[in-house]
Specification:
Blueprint: H1 8-22, H2 29-44, H3 50-65, H4 69-73, H5 77-83
Helix pairs in contact: 1-2, 1-3, 2-3
């Protein structure tokens, strides 16, 4: 029996929720929460805009944390590759 694999979108969702929960009152927490909810819904319903919404989550994470995209995605290389942000 093999372990279930996690899609890059699911990895990003989990990481984003973890960061959101660290500071739910930061200046941009509401925008981050909204972006993650939309991505989660798109993944759940297999909608075609998952990649676009994932990019929105990355942008919201960068704004909320002040991190650069490269630093933010360093622990998630599969997400960076999926979004073409690994160059």
């Amino acid at each position: 029996m093999t372990a279930p694999t996690t899609s890059p979108a699911e990895t990003l969702i989990r990481h984003a929720w973890d960061l959101y929960e660290q500071d739910t009152e930061c200046d941009h927490a509401a925008n981050l929460r909204e972006a993650v909810w939309q991505l989660e819904e798109a993944v759940d319903y297999d909608r075609g805009d998952v990649e676009q919404l994932a990019r929105r989550v990355v942008q919201a994470l960068c704004i909320a944390t002040g991190d650069e995209v490269d630093d933010l995605l360093a622990p998630m290389p599969a997400v960076a590759t999926w979004l073409g942000l690994d160059q």
